[in-house]
Amino acid sequence: MAKILVTGAAGFIGFHLADKLLARGDEVIGIDNLNDYYDVSLKKDRLAELEGKNNFYFEKIELSDRAKIENLFAQFQPEKVAHLAAQAGVRYSLQNPHAYIDSNLVGTANILEGCRHNGVKHLVFASSSSVYGANKKQPFSVSDNVDHPLSLYAATKKSNELMVHSYSHLYNIPATGLRFFTVYGPWGRPDMAMFIFTKAILEERELKVFNYGKMRRDFTYIDDIVDGIIRVLDKIPQPNPNWSALNPDPSISSAPYKIYNIGNNKPVELLHFIEVIEASTGKKAIKNLLPLQPGDVIETYADIEDLTRDTGFTPQTPIEVGIPRFVDWYRSYYKI
User: Fold this and answer.
1) Which end of the chain is more exposed for a tag (fewer CB within 10 A), N or C?
2) pLDDT at 19 > cutoff 80
3) Would you say the pTM of this structure is higher than 0.85?
């Protein structure tokens, strides 16, 4: 049994990860600020699912509150940290940039200091496929250059990778970053495509489909994501002797640091994604086809070869299985 700090424990991925860790016997300390970026009652209901379980402890904390984060680490002394909390959303970062600086940059710095001063054995942190930005080569590889983000959200995630690497190098903190690719499933976020599309279709409202539906996303089911995170948590990275300062590969390091993509490895066109939701709900979408939005990328496609090689991770859930599971949860949760 390990003692694991999960930041963002009331969030979509954090909730599912905490639940799975508790089920296998780990002790979980969850933190979240329960902000109102989306429906707080959904976050509270996720928490309620966890709070009745043994070995789960929760603290409501802002990541940017340095003193409270210091006290949390000192009190609980976690062996490992799954740092999933962040201000999420590409489009919201165009409207409220300071929220991203406070949570994603200042907050991550506070988590890194907690790891540094309390002997954490492994920090696993959330990055994003958004870091690939203007890249056109597919599939996206962790060895690719990612210096052209298209949103502040993406820039903060790239910054997190750099911040964590510096701490790994300076203080020998084993750290692994995971670039998530479009996660969906039960208890999902209301600002994500799966939730927005299902809600609009069930309510027979117009559905905004950007870039005229000619977008492709590597939709990844939540159970596969959690399986991957746990495999990574259990595999502490070592310095890579093959890293070369003359020809540096950004996915590896002379420090105990590693970056992985975690996705389904099967991009799906948005219009087909909508078709599967239609089949699952038994209703037709009323589509309003619109041009590309600022900050959006046209395609995401994860190269997961190294994650599979190093941990045995293999996605198991096609959208034809995952989408009906989400729709069933949505109808049950909202009593539709």
Assistant:
1) N
2) yes
3) yes
